[in-house]
Amino acid sequence: MTPNRRYVDGGPLLRRDDPDEPEKDPVRCDSCGEPIAGSPAGAGLFLWTRGDEVRYEEPPLCERCAYAIAVGGMLQWEMDEEG
């Protein structure tokens, strides 16, 4: 599998020594687009293939969206199990 994009925490925040260095754009939730303060609460998972190559993507999610997507998946699974 070849990772296309994976969110990786940059580790501890370091003091910026260069005041002219541009600010980085904040990490945004892939579902709602809101900026995420700190580490993402979760990540989505997209899988697709192109020929023999399998690609995956793990976009960051805010706490609200991560919870909503997880609960929605569990409810759908329960409905599928019941028939």
Main β sheet profile: 3 strands, mixed
Distance between the termini: 34 Å
Query: How much strand content do the residues show?
Result: 15-25%
Number of strands: 5
Specify the number of helices.
1
Based on secondary structure, the structural category is alpha+beta
List the helices and strands and how they pair.
Blueprint: E1 2-6, E2 42-43, E3 46-50, E4 53-58, E5 60-61, H1 63-82
Any overview of this molecule?
This protein has 83 residues and is α+β, with helices and mostly antiparallel strands. The chain has a domain of 58 residues. The protein is built from 1 helix and 5 strands; from the N terminus they run βββββα. The strands form 2 sheets. Strands 1-4-3 form a 3-stranded mixed beta sheet, with no helix packed on it. The chain has a two-stranded antiparallel ribbon with strand order 2-5. Strand 3 and strand 4 form a beta hairpin. The longest helix has 20 residues. It is flat, with a radius of gyration of 17 Å. It starts with a strand and ends with a helix. The N terminus is likely disordered.
Give a summary of the structure in a few sentences.
With 83 residues, this protein is of the alpha+beta class. The protein has a domain at 26-83. It is 24% helix and 24% strand.
Features:
24% helix; flat; 83 residues; single chain; two-stranded antiparallel ribbon
